[in-house]
Amino acid sequence: MDIRIQKSKLHNHQKIQITGSKSESNRLLLLQALYPQISINNVSNSDDSVLMQNALVSEDELIDIHHAGTAMRFLTAYFAIQKGRETILTGSPRMKERPIKILVDALKMLGADITYLENDGFPPIKIVGSELTKHKVTLQANVSSQYISALLLIASKLENGLELTLKGKITSVPYINMTLSLLQSIGVETSFIENTITVKPQTTNLKPQTLTVESDWSSASYFYSLIALSPVGTEITIAAYKDKSLQGDSVLATIYKEFGITTTFKDESIRLQKISNPDKKLKVELDLKNAPDIAQTIAVTAFGLGLECYMIGLHTLKIKETDRLVALKTELEKLGAQVEITDLSLHLQPSENRNSNIKIATYNDHRMAMAFAPLGLKVPIDIENADVVSKSYPQFWEDFKSIGFNLK
Ligand SMILES: O=C(O)C1=C[C@@H](OP(=O)(O)O)[C@@H](O)[C@H](O)C1
Ligand SMILES: C=C(OP(=O)(O)O)C(=O)O
């Protein structure tokens, strides 16, 4: 399904409810499978969380996780400790290009039995569940934090817990801290000192408890972009958010101040208001190693405002749903932008040039579709395979329509 966004204007003062964080949900679903005393409120209705949920209750040998990277990594660790069970974990063609060797090597060092079924270092993999008897492992931390979170999530079920030593510059740190915070909130003891993370084994039963997932901050980014591209005075309220978030993408509130947006927390909601237009000479400079999922949104906001934007810390973007650096450059250039990329950075030149009626390719990447949609406030635009949004935000187009977007 392609979507055409005609030139649109937002209804002011709207309120939108956003589904639970995909990252928090996928962690808590796995923890709930290990500790059934846990109940979860506001679980994400994203495809990736539904796939995670189904995989955890499935009794099939073959589990296909489609495009869900977090689920792929977390389930690799989960099935490695399901004693006596054989599981084949596979995914979409792109998933078979997303590396998993660092995690598989670490699990094997702890005693796991995992083999590659096609290409070394990549899914599909065959896992024979066993008791992992070792408890110390060192792994490279600069490729994806998901490998680290996967190990931490199963750690309290290992006989002696886990002592993880991280090598190299640690990437996407807030996601590691989110995992540790959720473990602590259910009662598991953890510590993170310098480059060593320790998780104690959980020997007693956890008490029954209900945890509430905060709404997804990466999804909130598209509303920040919308408000940034709207006239001064426009505002929107989105729910349900907390002042103290576990999600690193909550840094949006700080980043979008530069684009003239204020964020006010009230009654578990945030109100985004456009209070000024940024100076045309503004150069947006950011290191996004802690918040890689909002890079596409920010690049498109800067383009829509005609601003120069230089972002570093983007080394993980090449191994996500698509090579997001190449995808951003290709699609922004179709619209008239000038973009240079390296393996870890993107530089967008300032320009008022904006071609209209361009068809944006989405490369099976939900964030390509959602990041480019707000440009519909400036020029008519087509989004190819617009249903990719369901990977993290199935109601995305309904919500955009309800606040004034003219979609065909
Ligand atoms: O742990 C998580 O929930 C995630 C970690 C990040 O991945 P990397 O650590 O690979 O950057 C992020 O991009 C992804 O969308 C979700
Ligand atoms: C990178 C993402 O997800 P995953 O790695 O879980 O596929 C994302 O949602 O932007």
From TrEMBL:
Amino-acid positions noted as binding 3-phosphoshikimate in the UniProt annotation, renumbered to this chain: K22, S23, R27, S144, S145, Q146, S172, D293, K320
UniProt entry tagged with the keyword Iron-sulfur: no
Gene3D superfamilies found in the cross-reference section: Enolpyruvate transferase domain
UniProt-annotated catalytic positions: D293
Positions of phosphoenolpyruvate binding: K22, G69, R98, Q146, R324, R367, K391
UniProt pathway annotation: Metabolic intermediate biosynthesis; chorismate biosynthesis; chorismate from D-erythrose 4-phosphate and phosphoenolpyruvate: step 6/7
Family annotation (SUPFAM superfamilies): EPT/RTPC-like
Keyword Hydrolase: no
Cellular compartments annotated: Cytoplasm
EC numbers: 2.5.1.19
Assigned keywords, A-Z: Amino-acid biosynthesis, Aromatic amino acid biosynthesis, Cytoplasm, Transferase
InterPro entries named among the record's database cross-references: Enolpyruvate_Tfrase_dom, Enolpyruvate_Tfrase_sf, EPSP_synthase, EPSP_synthase_CS, RNA3'P_cycl/enolpyr_Trfase_a/b
Annotated Enolpyruvate transferase domain residues: 59-399
Pfam families, alphabetized: EPSP_synthase (PF00275)
Catalytic activity line of the entry: 3-phosphoshikimate + phosphoenolpyruvate = 5-O-(1-carboxyvinyl)-3-phosphoshikimate + phosphate
Assembly notes: Monomer.
HAMAP family: EPSP_synth
Homology family: Belongs to the EPSP synthase family.
Function: Catalyzes the transfer of the enolpyruvyl moiety of phosphoenolpyruvate (PEP) to the 5-hydroxyl of shikimate-3-phosphate (S3P) to produce enolpyruvyl shikimate-3-phosphate and inorganic phosphate.
Record-given protein name: 3-phosphoshikimate 1-carboxyvinyltransferase
